[in-house]
Amino acid sequence: MKKNNSGDPKATRKSAFMTGYDIEVNADIAAQNAFDRMKQVGFGALTEQEKTVATVWLFAGKVANSGFHGFFSSDAGDLAFYAPTALKNIGAFKMAKIAAAANSAFGSKGPPKDRGARRKVWRSFPGDVTGKFEALESSFYKCADDLDELLEKYVKKASAS
Question: Which domain holds residue 137?
């Protein structure tokens, strides 16, 4: 890894995607960088690119591994409000509709940002709503949007600019 003249490799970082480093940027690196910054400054202070990468990464991983219950029950669900936007940002328009439909089950304001409040609402859902989530999970797994590929393309494009 090349360093700049100051000896600090991060000093040349121009964006969320570590453009100051002499390495190929990928979604893994961009996501880790976004998570690190989110811990330091909070979600609201992230760049649009960082918000997008962090949200898509958490949404995709949590829903794929734990379903919507796992997503909304975890701290990943704190970013549920942003998932449709982030998915659109990378070109995953079908998946964005699935995320929006899942959010709409919580009402017009979407899921609460607070994890405890989301869990409380989830526990109060009647059977027809939980059935809706099962159908959305099925749509998630069948969706033609390749989130890994789209996120990689998004990161490469963002890091080149």
Answer: 23-155
Main-chain phi, psi angles of 64, to 5 degrees:
-65, -35
| Residue 6 counted as domain residue | no
Identify whether 8 is part of a domain.
no
- Give the Cα separation of 70 and 110 in Å (integer): 17
What pLDDT tens digit does each residue of the chain (161 aa) get? 222 334 444 333 334 444 454 456 789 999 999 999 999 999 999 999 999 999 999 999 999 999 999 999 999 999 999 999 999 999 999 999 999 999 999 999 999 999 999 999 999 999 889 899 999 999 999 999 999 999 999 999 988 87
Whether the pTM exceeds 0.90: the reply is no
Residue 117 DSSP symbol: H
Q: In sequence order, what are the residues at sequence separation of 6 or more whose Cβ sits closer than 8 angstroms to the Cβ of residue 153?
A: 90, 91
Secondary structure class of 147 (helix, strand, coil): helix
The answer to whether residues 108 and 116 touch, using CB atoms and an 8 Å cutoff, is no
Number of domains in the chain: 1
Distance CA 90, CA 22 (A): 24
